[in-house]
Write a structure and sequence with these properties.
Rossmann fold, 2 domains, six-stranded parallel beta sheet, 14 strands, globular
Length: 358
């Protein structure tokens, strides 16, 4: 199968959705031996083969969208015509997907938004709002053979917002259990870990406040954001970005994710795969956490509720072991092989079970 994935950037300098797109591409190549192409933006115009994936770069420039919607369209069509893909899959609906909306192959779009669309629009100018709605949504959606979301709650929201005009299919994100796994040589510390962006909507300020109730427990924060400067205290540790994230998950007793806004957060699954108990807010995390079975769902993400659940879990070693064991089981159900198999089944169903090139 020839698959072309459209995404704004690729690792190492990219966000969570872009990392998902890259993992998707890698799994198609390594596990299914498909021919995979990625169309993205870089410093130059050209193609590289990276880890078995053909990566086609379009140069970044001023007025990026406007240029490629007009004069630069030829560059995009030249690349795609040379590939002749069976499937074009855009992670986060792209303007390149809009340009290719009539291309004669199967077309799929995946929505990764953690923030509701109406809130996204309030932060855009009128021009960018119209551009977003027409290019990334209305006209783009109409030409898709399938639209997927990574969470059930986002699928329900999008279905309601678009008055059930489209069938939103839920296919969650996955993790690499060869990377995120228990490490027997790393000992558990009396430590609470947070991984993610250091933003108010992630509840970081509430976790910092909750840490004051546990002077003998270290609270470690990994990530970047405008709240980084607020992580100050005798039992607080701020590390920014790290290369050995798996080791940090393994060394923590508990991971806490008290976010107000998520779609399908992978940090919880990553921690669970490493055998670490997870305490989290409901939104997003309840897609895979069952309260009291494989994790703890907070009734509220205020500092008092966070402190109460940390205290309970630290005292209840039996519950801690149960969450650790069941968390590992849950993580193994969400491997990239399982997730990409669902995408691939979707492609084949849309093609009637046959490849046009095969």
């Amino acid at each position: 199968m020839k698959v072309l994935i459209l995404v704004g950037s690729i690792p190492p300098k990219c966000g969570g959705a872009e990392n998902v797109a890259w993992s998707h591409a890698l799994t198609l190549v390594k596990s299914f031996k498909d021919e995979v192409h990625v169309l993205t933006f870089g410093e130059y115009y050209g193609t590289e083969k990276i880890q078995g994936i053909f990566v086609h770069f379009l140069p970044k420039r001023r007025l990026l969208t406007e240029y490629y919607l007009t004069l630069g369209q030829t560059k995009i069509f030249n690349i795609v015509n040379s590939i002749k893909p069976d499937v074009i899959h855009q992670h986060i609906p792209q303007f390149s997907g809009y340009i290719l909306r009539n291309y004669p192959c199967i077309k799929v779009a995946t929505i990764h938004d953690g923030i509701k669309e109406d809130k996204i629009l309030t932060n855009l100018s009128l021009y960018r709002r119209l551009q977003y709605l027409t290019i990334r949504r209305w006209l783009n959606f109409r030409k898709m053979d399938a639209i997927t979301t990574v969470s059930k709650h986002n699928a329900a929201y999008m279905s309601q917002r678009y008055d059930k005009k489209y069938n939103f299919i839920t296919i969650p994100n996955g993790i690499d259990v060869n990377v995120f796994r228990p490490i027997s040589t790393v000992k558990k510390e009396k430590k609470v870990l947070y991984v993610g962006r250091l933003l108010k909507r992630k509840g970081v300020h509430n976790l910092v406040e909750a840490s004051k109730s546990f002077p003998d427990i270290k609270f470690t924060f990994i990530g970047k954001g405008h709240l980084a400067d607020s992580i100050r205290g005798d039992n607080l540790e701020y590390l920014g970005f790290v290369d050995n994230l798996t080791e940090h998950y393994n060394s923590a007793s508990v991971c806490v994710f008290p976010s107000n806004s998520e779609n399908y957060p992978l940090v919880g699954l990553e921690a669970m795969a490493c055998g670490t108990a997870v305490i989290s807010s409901s939104i997003g995390f309840s897609e895979y956490i069952s309260n009291g079975d494989n994790g703890i769902i907070l009734k509220s993400n205020d500092s008092e509720s966070i402190a109460l659940e940390i205290h309970k879990l630290m005292k209840d070693k039996k519950l801690m072991r149960k969450l650790q064991s069941n968390g590992i089981r849950t993580a193994k159900e969400n491997t990239w092989l399982n997730i990409v198999s669902k995408y691939r089944d979707l492609y084949l169903n849309l093609m009637g079970g046959k490849l046009k090139n095969g």
